């Protein structure tokens, strides 16, 4: 009976958040298509209002937590990992730089911009600072008081961040689309109606140099702002799911990140990262200069991506084969953070799959095939396969139970109670394993395949103990020691391989996040898909799918970092 009102509160709060998001989404869409009577100031006013409401709720929560800081609160040990907090802090710092650029941009164009365009970055900067502090202090909280009110406050924060993410994605996508149209104009495509979607201010800048720096710098910083808001919304969503949750109190094993043992994976991953940055720089310089240079840039991009994706597929298959050789149980306990990770991996991968299937279909149906477009076929196929394999590896890794540390087991001692009601300390692990334990009247501690147990024997009186010679005992000890250490060595080697694979895939996903995030998008520049599907339909597909594809790479990198710590 007591859970029924809380379930209602969860449903009501989720519906409130969805309606909040849909209203903002339609307002954003209306501004993007230049709807009559809708200006950017209306959209920014709506976002400012949402941020101010969230600020009031966060300040109220922080003040209430400060007055109750002596109370012992439940915590979700899986939520709000330290590396995740450090990542969102890094993105938040770059977001603050973006806000300062927007303030400078507003000052230079203050004669023809509305006041909301100056208020928005200031409000957003304050919102960013307080939200990061809130997440650092309370991301692990399991709220048990004022639950109905807190549900509405947290879900409001989730959808506020999602709307800010949507606004950033749209602004950045419009900029990328304008650049693509300018390249088409340069290359002389006359069969496509090209109209630049220009939201530039209708007045002159007071300082031309500063205006150029601010306007260009803003779009290079948007990818970090986009990742900041999506990370914040996921952390807040986990906090919302944890409201009123009952957790089992058990000690969580800390798994700090260590560079020891992952040198090979880091070296190959850094090679991929450096080469990707070089490819992106050359691509952005060459694309749109001329038809020949554009084709060479696309060919270079596809060949590099094919090699990287093939390596990622191979390492992912090796990791899955190692898992198949191990007999490890899965952790099926309730964990909102882990469940959300798996759902986001599969859900956001659909963005890349949509683009890849569109490219495959365009290659099959197109009448003319320039040479460079054939590289798009293996690239698109590998994108689909690589995400299949990587998702399997990550989801299985985060669900596997952690191995017990052998060094801790070696030092284990078992206290047993003898028939005479006296306590005796059993032999050490090695003695138990090697069969040297003395049987003391009934209960014999034993160790079999890494599990410690107590075994009872039929004992009436004083049984005679079988005696073995010192030579046979030494031989037995040597054989069992060799078996133990060889098994330990195999397990250690498997763990080292898995850690190197996780480190390599982590850096590869960071590498593959860079090209689309910073404007290297062959889906725009290939041209084949636009001919088959039409310019506007394909651009709509790319603009819808690309944000999910970009987020997938960053989320995969974060998940692989966790896998590396856990392995």
TrEMBL record:
<dbReference type="GO" id="GO:0042472">
    <property type="term" value="P:inner ear morphogenesis"/>
</dbReference>
<feature type="transmembrane region" description="Helical">
    <location>
        <begin position="83"/>
        <end position="107"/>
    </location>
</feature>
<feature type="transmembrane region" description="Helical">
    <location>
        <begin position="344"/>
        <end position="369"/>
    </location>
</feature>
<keyword id="KW-1133">Transmembrane helix</keyword>
<protein>
    <submittedName>
        <fullName>Otopetrin-1</fullName>
    </submittedName>
</protein>
<keyword id="KW-0472">Membrane</keyword>
<feature type="transmembrane region" description="Helical">
    <location>
        <begin position="16"/>
        <end position="37"/>
    </location>
</feature>
<keyword id="KW-1003">Cell membrane</keyword>
<feature type="transmembrane region" description="Helical">
    <location>
        <begin position="43"/>
        <end position="62"/>
    </location>
</feature>
<keyword id="KW-0813">Transport</keyword>
<keyword id="KW-0407">Ion channel</keyword>
<feature type="transmembrane region" description="Helical">
    <location>
        <begin position="119"/>
        <end position="136"/>
    </location>
</feature>
<feature type="transmembrane region" description="Helical">
    <location>
        <begin position="261"/>
        <end position="285"/>
    </location>
</feature>
<feature type="transmembrane region" description="Helical">
    <location>
        <begin position="219"/>
        <end position="240"/>
    </location>
</feature>
<dbReference type="Pfam" id="PF03189">
    <property type="entry name" value="Otopetrin"/>
</dbReference>
<feature type="transmembrane region" description="Helical">
    <location>
        <begin position="531"/>
        <end position="552"/>
    </location>
</feature>
<dbReference type="InterPro" id="IPR004878">
    <property type="entry name" value="Otopetrin"/>
</dbReference>
<comment type="similarity">
    <text>Belongs to the otopetrin family.</text>
</comment>
<feature type="transmembrane region" description="Helical">
    <location>
        <begin position="301"/>
        <end position="323"/>
    </location>
</feature>
<dbReference type="GO" id="GO:0005886">
    <property type="term" value="C:plasma membrane"/>
</dbReference>
<dbReference type="GO" id="GO:0015252">
    <property type="term" value="F:proton channel activity"/>
</dbReference>
<keyword id="KW-0375">Hydrogen ion transport</keyword>
<feature type="transmembrane region" description="Helical">
    <location>
        <begin position="497"/>
        <end position="519"/>
    </location>
</feature>
<keyword id="KW-0812">Transmembrane</keyword>
<keyword id="KW-0406">Ion transport</keyword>
């Amino acid at each position: 009976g007591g859970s029924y009102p809380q379930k209602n509160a969860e449903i009501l709060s989720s519906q409130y958040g969805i309606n909040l998001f849909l209203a903002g989404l339609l307002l954003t869409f209306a501004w993007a298509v230049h709807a009559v009577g809708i200006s950017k100031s209306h959209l920014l006013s709506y976002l400012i209002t949402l941020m101010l409401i969230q600020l009031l709720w966060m300040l109220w929560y922080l003040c209430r937590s400060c007055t109750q800081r002596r109370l012992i609160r439940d915590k979700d040990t899986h939520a709000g990992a330290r590396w995740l907090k450090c990542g969102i802090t890094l993105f938040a710092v770059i977001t603050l730089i973006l806000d300062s650029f927007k303030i400078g941009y507003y000052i230079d164009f203050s004669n023809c911009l509305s006041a909301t365009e100056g208020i928005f970055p200031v409000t957003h900067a304050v919102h960013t600072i307080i939200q990061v502090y809130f997440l650092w202090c309370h991301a692990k909280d399991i709220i048990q008081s004022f639950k109905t009110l807190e549900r509405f406050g947290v879900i409001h924060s989730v959808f506020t961040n999602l709307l800010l993410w949507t606004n950033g994605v749209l602004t950045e996508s419009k900029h990328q689309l304008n650049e693509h149209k300018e390249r088409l104009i340069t290359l002389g495509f006359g069969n496509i109606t090209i109209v630049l979607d220009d939201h530039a201010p209708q007045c002159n800048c007071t300082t031309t140099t500063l205006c150029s720096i601010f306007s260009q710098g803003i779009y290079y910083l948007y990818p970090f702002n986009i990742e900041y808001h999506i990370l914040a919304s996921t952390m807040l969503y986990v906090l919302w799911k944890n409201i009123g949750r009952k957790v089992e109190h058990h000690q969580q094993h800390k798994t700090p990140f260590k560079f020891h043992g992952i040198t090979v994976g880091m070296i190959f991953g850094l090679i991929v990262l450096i080469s990707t940055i070089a490819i992106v720089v050359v691509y952005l310089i060459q694309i749109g200069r001329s038809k020949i240079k554009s084709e060479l840039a696309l060919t270079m991009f596809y060949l590099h991506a094919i090699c990287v994706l093939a390596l990622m597929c191979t390492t992912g298959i090796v990791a899955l084969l190692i898992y198949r050789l191990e007999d490890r149980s899965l952790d099926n306990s309730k964990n909102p953070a882990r469940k959300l990770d798996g759902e986001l991996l599969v859900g956001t991968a659909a963005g890349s799959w949509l683009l890849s299937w569109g490219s495959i279909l365009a290659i099959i149906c197109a009448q003319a095939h320039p040479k460079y477009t054939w590289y798009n076929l293996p690239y698109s196929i590998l994108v689909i396969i690589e995400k299949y394999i990587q998702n399997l590896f990550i989801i299985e890794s985060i669900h596997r139970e952690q191995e017990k540390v052998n060094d801790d087991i070696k030092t284990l001692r078992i206290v047993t109670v003898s028939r005479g009601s006296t306590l005796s300390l059993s032999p050490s692990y090695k003695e138990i394993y090697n069969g040297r334990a003395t049987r003391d009247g009934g209960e014999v501690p034993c160790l079999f395949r890494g599990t410690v147990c107590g075994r009872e024997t039929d004992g009436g009186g004083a049984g005679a103990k079988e005696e073995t010679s010192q030579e046979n005992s030494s031989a037995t000890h040597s054989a069992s020691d060799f078996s133990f250490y060889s098994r330990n060595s195999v397990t250690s080697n498997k763990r080292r391989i898995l850690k190197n694979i996780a480190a390599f895939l982590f850096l590869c996903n960071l590498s593959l996040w860079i090209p689309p995030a910073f404007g290297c998008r062959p889906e725009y520049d290939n041209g084949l898909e636009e001919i088959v599907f039409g310019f506007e339909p394909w651009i709509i597909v790319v603009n819808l799918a690309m944000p999910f594809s970009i987020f997938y790479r960053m989320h995969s990198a974060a998940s692989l970092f966790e896998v590396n710590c856990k392995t």
